[in-house]
Amino acid sequence: MLATRTARSASPWAVCAIVLLATGLSGDQFLLSVATTTILWVVLAGGLNLMMGYGGLANLGIGASYGIGAYAAGLVATRTGLPLVAAFAVAILAAAIVAAVIAPFVLRTRGLHFAIATLAIGIVATDLFTNLAGLTGGSVGLSGISRPDWLADPAAMYWFAAAIGFLLLVLFAVYHRSRMALVLRGVRDDEQLTRSLGFAVTRYKITAFVLGSACAGLAGALYAYFIQYVAPSEFALAGASFQAFAIVAFGGAATVWGPSVGAILLTGLPTFVDLGPQAKMAAYGLALLIVVLAVPEGVVPGAVRLSRLLRHQFRQRSTPVEKTPSGAETAPLPETATRYRG
Amino acid sequence: MLQTIVVGLVEGGVYALSAVGLVLIFSVAGVANLAHGESVVVGGLVAYAAGTYAHVPYVLSIVVGAAAATVLGLILSLVFDRLRDAAETGVLMASLGLILIIEAFGVTVFGDEPKSVPAAPGHVLDLGGVRIPAVWAVIVVTAFVLTGLLRLYISASRPGRAMRAMAMNPYAATLMGIARRRYAMLAFAIGSCVAGIAGALLASAFPIGATSGEDIAFKAFIVIIFAGLGSIGGALAGGLLLGVIGAVASSYIDSGYANTFLFAFLLIVIVLRPNGLFGVNVARD
């Protein structure tokens, strides 16, 4: 039993590693560029998941942190002779610092108000990217970001992004099991109760907000080096924040693999589908609607539930006599806290 | 300056009408309907189609637009009814999906370019140097009249009382024998109808595009949040205020920063007065 359990928890990692390796070894230029873009979304949506999935902080302005990261990396790359590591460090720090300054104020709001407040931050950020032309190049954008020699090749860029993405997934898995994630779930389900248990709720929320924003900053730096050109529209509401939100909610919030599956299904897959722009948009919308109606908790938790159900039925059929009383091993469904809506 | 304020009031009238419908839906059905802007757009585009292709008279085209928006509202209520127990993120995701579907449909049928309702009354009133097209005056007057009627309906009629009960406590309202689902649908129908009228009027004053729904929905959300959730009169005042602030900002500050100014204002209000400027003391989220 233990062996199968270990195998079960290790198998997604194996699949992930195989997919990453196979994509890289295929050497197909188009596939590589789609895969690199998808990894960007995994990083961005994974960052959003840290706050939105676990803490219920639906940040609709994550595009702001993404943009700050991209512009910071782009500026370091074009205006100074510093190496790539410095550009990435500056990008992550810039996004984290801005988030840390904003956090105490926006986190005074919750629920829908938080969503609207962060949405406003996202819009203000896009305005600033467009209008601070001296720094950002305005609507023309920031071009001429050159990659170092070892990263010049598209395949090298892919391997670089894949390594960062895989590393982040490991960190996400650690986060998933951390005490912090547990407290944040408590905050999401009942903030007052969690506070009454003595947890410094605000501090946890600020930390999650800053961590997620830093992750978005990292995604921005990756973007700047991948596309080698940074323009404001890429970080606007429709372009970045909503997409990241949809990926998290679609794939499964508060799961390790949700953002990855969501990114593959919503950003990777559509590039291979041959439909007109309007039909594609409608199909995307329809997919969101179907998932939210059929499996509100997202694709990954839905699939996990389905497989448990099937396994349970299979086991019952193979050993019909031995009906064990519900133990931890055979429990078909995880205990989930029911949401109290007063 | 006066002219600017008038322009702001006209835009604000449209925001106010959208927000009034949204606040009704939000408080009665308990749904953050981000797809509300689509009702405005559908109202405008259907009114345009009725006027252009069926050559119906102006007033009738507005009625047709409002009717189409009402039908859309009923469809939306059916979708959201199934998400009653879903988390907020689920509602947002469903809204997002609906927006994309409706916009894709709208662009396919009407194309990319913004459209105007034809045969809108063209004369211009001249009030002491301020030139006001008659349509503009109609928008502002309609905003006041419809809001007034809606308030009267909500406060004095029996269905209105049922809807108020649901806004206060849906669970208790159900226990008192209020058909929750039916009144949620009614709120969606009325809210979308008002939005459709707003859209038809907007399209007779300024061109309206198939993809302008998102922007209108954001503005409407901003209005109801800084006006305070649950207040219909507040939504009217907030809408007009937002319109005026926006118009003044874009003509006196660098127009690129107009949005920044508006949203910075919103952020300050949200952070300092979470219950809104005209706060009704209800729960924050």
Task: Summarize the structure in words.
The complex is a heterodimer of chains A (342) and B (285). Chain A has 342 residues and is mainly α. In chain A, 73% of the residues lie in helices and 1% in strands. Chain A contains 14 helices and two strands, in the order ααααααβααααβαααα. Chain A has helices at residues 2-26, 29-55, 62-79, 84-106, 111-131, 133-136, 154-176, 179-189, 191-196, 201-227, 237-251, 258-268, 277-294, 299-318; strands spanning 142-143, 229-230. The longest helix of chain A has 27 residues, at 29-55. Chain A is globular and about 70 Å long. In chain A, 48% of the residues are buried. Residues 322-342 of chain A have low confidence and may be disordered. With 285 residues, chain B is mainly α. Chain B is built from eleven helices and two strands, in the order H-H-H-H-E-E-H-H-H-H-H-H-H. Chain B has helices spanning 2-29, 36-53, 58-81, 88-110, 134-156, 158-168, 170-175, 180-205, 213-227, 232-252, 258-272; strands at 124-127, 130-133. A two-stranded antiparallel sheet of chain B has the order 1-2. In chain B, strand 1 and strand 2 (130-133) form a beta hairpin. The longest helix of chain B is centred in the first third of the chain and has 28 residues, at 2-29. Chain B is globular and about 60 Å long. Chain B starts with a helix and ends in a 13-residue tail after the last helix. In chain B, 54% of the residues are buried. Residues 281-285 of chain B have low confidence and may be disordered. At the A-B interface, helix 5, helix 11 and helix 13 of A face helix 4, helix 9 and helix 11 of B.
